[in-house]
Amino acid sequence: MTSGGLPRSRSIDSRSYGLSPSKAVTSDLSARKRRSSRGRDEPGSFALTKVTSNSIKELPRGTKPIRFIGEGAANAVFEIQVPVTDESATQFKGLLLRVAKVPQRGQKSTYDYLFQQSFFEKSILPVLGKYAVHQEMVGLRHHDIFEEMNNLLASLDVKRKKKFRGSFIGESEFGLLVEDMTAKDSDHFTVEFKPKWLAQSPSAPANAIRCRQCALELRYFITNPSGDRSLPIDKPCPLTLCDDGGAASAASPFRLAPGLATSPAREYIAKRLVNITKQPIMKELRRQQMLHDTTGPLTADPKDANFALAMTIRDCTCFAQISLRPSVEIEEGPLKLRFGDLDWKNPANKISHWRGLEAALINDGFYTANRIQFRGDYYNVPTLCALEMSSDCRPPATSVLQVDEEGKPQRQTRSVSAQGVHYIRTADVDEFAHRLLALKDRAVTTQSR
Ligand SMILES: Nc1ncnc2c1ncn2[C@@H]1O[C@H](COP(=O)(O)OP(=O)(O)OP(=O)(O)O)[C@@H](O)[C@H]1O
Ligand SMILES: [Mg+2]
Ligand SMILES: [Zn+2]
Question: Which of 1, 71, 182, 345 has most ligand 1 atoms within 8 Å of CB, for mutation?
Answer without folding.
Answer: 71
